[in-house]
Known about the structure:
Pfam families: Metallophos (PF00149). InterPro entries: Calcineurin-like_PHP, Metallo-depent_PP-like, PAP14/16/28/29. This protein is α/β, with parallel strands linked by helices. The chain has six helices and 16 strands. A hairpin with a 5-residue loop joins strand 5 (132-137) and strand 6 (143-149). The chain is globular.
Amino acid sequence: MEKKLKFREDGTFVIVQFSDTEFIDAEDLDPETPLLDSMTKTTMERIIELEQPDLVVFAGDVIASARSKDPLQSFRSAIAVAEENRVAWAAVFGNHDSEGSLPRKKMHEEQLLHEYCVAKSDPPGVSGAGNYVLTVDDSTGKPAASLFFLDSGDYSQMDSVGGYDWIRRDQIEWYVSESRQLAERNSGTPLPALAFFHIPLPEYDEVWKTKVCEGHCVEWISTPQVNSGLFAAMVEMGNVMGTFVGHDHSNDYCGTLHGIRLCYGRSTRYVSYVDGKRMDMFPTGARVIRLTAGERQFETWIRQSDGLVAELPMHEPDNL
């Protein structure tokens, strides 16, 4: 039976986004692993306790599979905090999830086996693993918001193009088709939506350089070298209010471009590595998102591992 997501009686719906948890679960391969895994789990438990979310989203790099002796067990360890707290959860996958021996399709199959996972099976003929859409029902049982989850891949498969992979054309066509169907069921009006994937779109670089943003941009914005057009499709469909990614550990900013808020999460495991050493420039944590039924907007903030809500700097581009 399909598991339903619902707005609360007060009309709100709270999502906690954990990014780059990178569980390894292999003490003999990395002596720091038990400590870092434990600290990451403690952070997640504290944030779940404080925010009481209706949904937890693991926004990719759930595990560091190349350094894990048993990637499936590492994945189970990462998502255990949601299962143990009986919180609905869903995951998308990042580049580190599939660097080891475990295919990302197998990892997606694994998440579907867990009691509190609300993810769905992949649509046929669509690239990647972990493409699905969820709806959140209002008090009448009618969908009032939608949540898109997309596989942004890992690394480019083309010899002529280096760097990270990109969301493919068939995935974009699937997103457009699902968006149209949801609008048709909503009397022709686009259903308010959020989108989650791991690797930031090229527009994340544009919004930082051209718009006022809130948050940090400490490291290179590592987008794909190819712009496959997902952002243009979202602008045209008029349903996505915000996108949420991980990937760049030292970036946690939000900025609005053409009516869509482009947001990073806050890295949940560590902020960055410099010369092979862990360097936390600010506390680890999670992004929190609060939707309200009937409103085409959302609130969002960073909850830190120390329990505090982050005070984020305002960034003005050079051209202002």
